[in-house]
Each structure stands twice: as C-alpha cells, then as structure tokens.
Design brief:
Blueprint: E1 2-7, H1 15-27, E2 34-39, H2 53-57, H3 68-76, E3 80-86, H4 94-101, E4 107-113, E5 119-123, E6 131-137, H5 148-157, E7 161-166, H6 178-198, H7 203-210, H8 216-223
Parallel strand pairs: 1-2, 1-3, 3-6, 6-7
Antiparallel strand pairs: 4-5
The structure holds flavin mononucleotide.
C-alpha cells in the first residue's frame, strides 16, 4: 500500500510522532509498505490565495508553484494518508492547515448533495480507495470538548476516516513517564497491525489509544509542579 505521512509537528522530537512511528511499525510488520514521510514544517507551502485558479485548470495542481504540488501528486496516488500533528488552539497547526486548504485542487467547483443533506464538491478523481488516519496529540489532560472542533473538521474533510486524539502527550518524551508511555506506544504498534489487516480501527482500539496515561488531577499537579 502507498502511504503518505504528513507530519505537522514543528518539533524535531515530536510527542505525537512517537505514536505515529509506533503505528507505522505495526503497519509494516507483516508487509513492508511504500511510506513517504513529509515533515511539513521543512516545506515551502504558502497559504491558499483563494483565487480558484486550480478550478480553472482542473489538473489537480495549485497555481502557486511551491512544495504543495508534489504533496498533491503523492496524495492522489496514496491508499492511506496519515495526518500526524499536535493540537494547536483546538485545531491543526497553521502550516499543516495550509496543506489541507490547498487540497482543493483535488475537487471541482461543481457540487453534489448527499443523502443526508451534506453538500460537497465533486472529486476530480475517484478517491474511494483513499483512507485517512488522523493521529493528534495534545498538552491538556482529557476533558470534554478539547478535540471537538478538530473531530468535526476531520469528519467533514476526510473519507474512510479513523481519528485518534490522545491527551497528555508531552509525557511521551519524559523518561520518568516511560512506565505509562511505553504501554501506550505498544498499543499504537498493535493498532498499526490491526489497521494493515482491516483498513480501519475497531472502536475498542480507539478507546484504548485515547485513554489518558494518568488521571487528570495527577497530570495537572505534575504540570503545575505541585
Ligand atoms: C501554539 C500552541 C497551541 C496549543 N494548543 C493546544 C490546545 O488547544 N489544546 C491542547 O490540549 N494542547 C495544546 N497545545 C499543546 C500541544 O498540543 C502539546 O504540547 C503536544 O504534545 C505537542 O506535540 P508535538 O511534540 O508532537 O509537537 C498547544 C501548543 C502550542 C505550541
């Protein structure tokens, strides 16, 4: 399977990417896949200009000639795109959002209404085989609402979607927390194996991955130095 990984953390030592890396290890266990990892922060990707020049050309490319067009080429030929990023202000980091905005060359201006009333642009090509996995880490402990905006955005933007939102991820790069971080990483590895078999994650798997490593109160008091 052809896999594109969009790493949206700007850090060299990303908390989130540790989970994604474990997931990829699981994915590749039975069969080695063709994986391309793009460190988005290293790329030159301007914000969308809103000119709709792409909808005049309809060749699946953006009129801005920067690194996004290579991403679009890989994107449209992938079986799986993994978006890996930290939660920033309840959404994705701005440099990665620029990548998302500039996927509009992959759809056309024409619209269609789905059975549930949702209105979407028609795709430029048949993307029915394309799967999406979103792995998002964040600095807050688990609280209702932290990921709501992101989940809504991802559900609207991506098909065949599995989304995993993990609280307390700075713990993944704290050596003293290995006792709780390593079991989580092992679960990500298993989840990767499951995904390679099923092309989806079971709800129980997602629940396990999203379960906080330590109780909220303990996490808050560690962060606060109490
Ligand atoms: C600009 C900025 C905004 C952030 N916004 C949130 C947020 O809305 N909710 C949250 O839980 N954590 C937030 N965080 C914390 C990061 O999500 C957290 O540190 C994460 O573990 C970083 O992951 P990374 O190492 O993969 O980049 C924010 C961090 C930064 C720098």
């Amino acid at each position: 399977m052809k896999i594109l990984v969009l790493n949206g953390s700007p850090k060299k030592k990303s908390d989130t990417f540790r989970m994604t890396d474990a997931f990829l290890r699981g994915l590749n266990r039975e069969q080695k896949h063709d994986v391309q990892i793009v460190d988005v922060i290293e790329k030159s990707i301007a914000p969308c200009r809103g000119c709709f020049g792409c909808w005049q050309k309809t060749d699946g490319h953006c009129v801005i000639e920067d690194d996004q067009n290579a991403i679009l080429d890989r994107y449209r030929n992938s079986d799986l795109v993994i978006w890996s990023f930290p939660l920033y202000c309840y959404g994705m980091p701005s440099h990665l959002k620029a990548v998302l905005d500039r996927t509009i060359p992959l759809v056309k201006m024409t619209m269609r209404q789905e059975a549930d009333g949702t209105v979407r642009h028609e795709a430029l090509a048949d993307f029915s085989r394309l799967h999406t996995v979103v792995i998002c880490g964040c600095g807050f402990p688990d609280w209702e609402g932290n990921f709501d905006g992101l989940r809504m955005q991802c559900r609207q933007c991506f098909g065949n979607l599995d989304i995993v939102c993990v609280p307390e991820t700075p713990m993944l790069n704290v050596p003293e927390a290995a006792v709780v971080a390593d079991p989580l990483l092992a679960c990500f590895e298993k989840a990767g194996e499951e995904y390679a078999r099923e092309m989806k994650l079971f709800p129980e798997t997602v629940t396990r991955l999203e379960t906080p490593m330590i109780p909220k109160e303990t996490y808050i008091s560690i962060v606060n130095g109490n």
